[in-house]
Write a structure and sequence with these properties.
Length: 139
């Protein structure tokens, strides 16, 4: 992977050092495994949904945690008492852990399981003090 030198950004921008640090971190992170597949949808101006294919997992086998700007979704299959002999096994039943870095002021609203898909709804709530406001010009 290519390395980018972001030091000019540090010198010419005020307050964007956190953004540059996030880009640096993203460049250094290892690739996440491709299981389970997921989509990230934009539902509205400040509403998002993560949809993850979790075929074969019950909601009791899933764990969703949101902590300090990070969302972690884990799936752990319960031990199967009956040993099975598969002629072909195409449905993955392995444990997984996915981490998502949440932007500032994004929080998890709800999670639901429907038709083998896990839906995690997110919303960005920007505080009033941080919203754009019109500044009157005095003469």
């Amino acid at each position: 992977m290519r390395n980018f030198d972001l030091t000019p950004l540090y010198r010419s921008a005020i307050g964007f050092d956190r953004l540059a640090n996030m880009i640096d971190t993203a460049n250094r992170n290892e690739q996440q495994p491709a299981f389970p597949p997921y989509n990230i949808e934009l539902l509205g101006e400040n509403e998002y949904r993560i949809t993850m294919a979790i075929a074969g997992f019950s909601k009791e086998e899933l764990d969703i945690q949101s902590e300090s700007g990070s969302l972690t979704i884990k799936g752990a299959k319960a031990a199967d008492e009956a040993e099975r002999t598969y002629l072909y096994q195409g449905i993955a039943g392995r444990n997984f852990e996915r981490r998502f870095q949440l932007a500032d002021h994004v929080k998890v609203v709800k999670a639901s399981v429907e038709n083998g898909l896990l839906h995690v709804d997110l919303v960005r709530e920007v505080p009033e003090a941080m919203k754009a406001r019109q500044i009157p010009i005095e003469s």
